[in-house]
Amino acid sequence: MEIKEKMLISDFSFYYDGGKRGGSKMVLNHVSFGICANDVVSLIGPSGCGKSTLLKAINRIHEVSYSVRVEGKIFLDGGNIYDSTIDTIWLRRKVGMVFQKPNPFQKSIFENVAFGLRIGGNHNEAEIKDIVELALRQSAIFDEVKDRLNESAMTLSGGQQQRLCIARALATKPDVLLMDEPCSALDPISTQKIEDLIEELKKSYTIIVVTHNMQQAARVSNMTAFMMSGELMEYGATKKVFTNPLKKITEDYISDMLNSSGISELREHIVTMQAHVSDMFRNMLDGFAKLDIKESQVIIEKDRKVDEMKHEIDRMISTLIALRQPVATDLRIVIASMKISTDLERIADHITLIAKSMKSLKKILTAEKIKKKIQKLGFHTYAATVNKIFEGALQSLNEGNTLIAKGVCNSKEEMLGSSKKMIKELMVEMSSKKLNLESGLQFIQILKELERIVSLSGNISEDVIYIFEGDGA
Ligand SMILES: Nc1ncnc2c1ncn2[C@@H]1O[C@H](COP(=O)(O)OP(=O)(O)OP(=O)(O)O)[C@@H](O)[C@H]1O
Ligand SMILES: [Mg+2]
Question: I need a labelling partner for 331 at 20 to 30 A (CA). Which of 92, 182, 316, 371 fits?
Answer without folding.
Answer: 182
